[in-house]
Specification:
This protein is α+β, with helices and mostly antiparallel strands and 265 residues long. Helices cover 43% and strands 14% of the residues. The strands form 6 sheets. It has a 3-stranded antiparallel sheet with strand order 4-6-5. A two-stranded antiparallel sheet has the order 1-2. It has a two-stranded antiparallel sheet with strand order 3-11. The longest helix is centred in the last third of the chain and has 16 residues. The structure holds iron/sulfur cluster (2 copies). One iron/sulfur cluster binds next to loops.
Length: 265
């Protein structure tokens, strides 16, 4: 049902103004069929929203609801663990639907769309999407249609895109693909900063972190209770360490001491 659509390698690419068929509601014959036996990778912001919705720490959330894999770069990626039952249902599925619906992950929100971005579309700040081909999903056969831009807005995707914009440049950096990370300590630091934010908070406040890095006192106060502010600091720290981006500054006295230790002027 897409209009003004373009076909590229057999894929229908929709712009924000295009429309697609979709209608999902309780009572539809396939209701919650899509919440079983699926692979859902979680973004750092997904985890913030989900653990806060459940009222548990990130450490507890990761332990109880996720699996961790090592990606091509050697860095850990986190996926939702399906329940150990015959249908492999999502842990958050109830007879009435998703019990964390307001805080469901990005990939559940954006379904049935999936982003089709390239470096060129990102540079031009254009958004394109395709519609997923899921044979059992009756919603895709509906007469009802929605404009891509309205769907994106109605599903609360904006804040997820904003948060992902901090994480994606790190994950797609050429520096990472050049040398696969195999050091378990670096892998764990990355996992903590990206996914286990409550542990990262303790690390920042209780280790020598604040003696090494220059962090605005207002930010230090904010991160004690604000997960998004903490996530921003975490992304600066990871980018500083892994892709050498200058988001976070080392204190001058620490740099000076290091130079002297190395015998540099
Ligand atoms: S219509 Fe599609 S998205 Fe909605 S419940 Fe059925 S399978 Fe899931
Ligand atoms: S998080 Fe919610 S919407 Fe997503 S798969 Fe699980 S039950 Fe379904």
């Amino acid at each position: 049902m897409a209009n003004q659509k373009t076909r590229k390698n057999g894929l229908t690419v929709l712009s924000l103004e295009d429309r697609f068929r979709f209608d999902c509601r309780p009572g539809i014959s396939c209701f919650t069929r899509c919440c079983r036996d699926i692979t859902i990778f979680l973004s750092p912001y997904d985890i913030i929203r989900m653990k806060n919705a459940l009222g548990i720490s990130s450490t507890e959330f990761l332990k109880n609801y996720t699996l961790t894999l090592i990606g091509d770069t050697g860095l850990p990626v986190v996926m939702l663990k399906m329940a150990d039952n015959k249908e492999k249902t999502c842990s958050f599925l109830t007879d009435q639907g998703c019990r964390i619906y307001e805080n469901r992950p990005w990939s559940c929100r954006i379904y049935p769309l999936q982003p089709e971005s390239t470096k060129a579309t990102e540079k031009a700040q254009k958004q394109y999407y395709s519609v997923m081909d899921v044979p059992f999903c009756q919603g895709l056969k509906a007469d009802q249609t929605a404009a891509v831009k309205d769907w994106i807005e109605s599903q609360g995707i904006g804040i997820y895109r904003e948060m992902e914009a901090l994480f994606k440049p790190i994950m797609t950096s050429q520096n990472l693909f050049a040398t696969k990370i195999t050091n378990p300590k670096i892998q764990d630091m990355f996992y903590m900063a990206c996914y286990d934010l409550d542990r990262f908070r303790r690390f920042v406040l209780e280790s020598s972190f604040l003696k090494v890095y220059q962090v605005d006192p207002e930010v230090v106060e904010k991160i004690k209770t604000d997960d998004v502010a903490l996530y921003r600091l975490a992304m600066d720290w990871v980018a500083h360490g892994l892709i050498e981006r200058q988001g976070l500054k080392i204190r001058p006295e620490v740099l000076e001491a290091k130079k002297q230790e190395l015998g540099l002027k």
